[in-house]
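RECORD CONTENTS
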Amino acid sequence: MTTRQELLSHFDALLQPERFKDYGPNGLQVEGRPEIHRIVSGVTASRALIDAAIRQEADAIFVHHGLFWRGMDGRVTGWMKQRLQRLLAHDINLFAYHLPLDAHPELGNNAQLGRVLGWQADQRFGDQELGFAAHADFAGAADLAAHVQAVLGRSVTLADPEDARPIRRVAWCTGGAQGFFEAAIAAGADAFLTGEISEPQAHLARETGVAFIAAGHHATERYGAPAVAAHVAAQLGLSHEFIEIDNPA
């Protein structure tokens, strides 16, 4: 058993949210019971995850995507009411860390995605150094895309360059980081991997010779939260379980 404040202090010390300019509040988003025995982790604080945490009798939930974002409607109605109602009725703490969880050099989303795909980052790039890059060895973009698809267990979108070339440097940034593509190109990548693709990236891939792979927002961000929660739970002697809520995004 530990206290809510001690758990928060461990998360903050590990992830250092004060270093980041983010889109919403990092840390404790919903206050629950003061004593913590069991943590559930997940990607998003959805109703499905909250209901699963209730069934597991969790005292705290740790996620990447919390409930509150800059510029959102502040009224507590509809889906927001349903999520908050469940958390408050069952006295469950909600901890959420967005960019700090992406950026952690060992346990974060980018580091853990690299681990899963077999890459050890040796370079950081982009805004707030959220992008990671590493040596790779693939005959071409199609081989890289096939590797990612096999490891993550889902189809990917490949924007293939007109001039095919071997992949010797791969860059990545999980989630909705398609805006990092130009920074990845400038950093010397032969291919860039993220979760989503927007209209401009296909043209840039064709014109620059750098491949672009969109492998799913959720699919690329499902490794950091359980890694961090398991690490802190082990430090504090707490029970931890990661709950996967399927998401096609």
Notes: Residues 224-236 form the longest helix (13 residues). DSSP finds ten helices and 13 strands in the chain. The first strand starts at residue 2 and ends at 3.
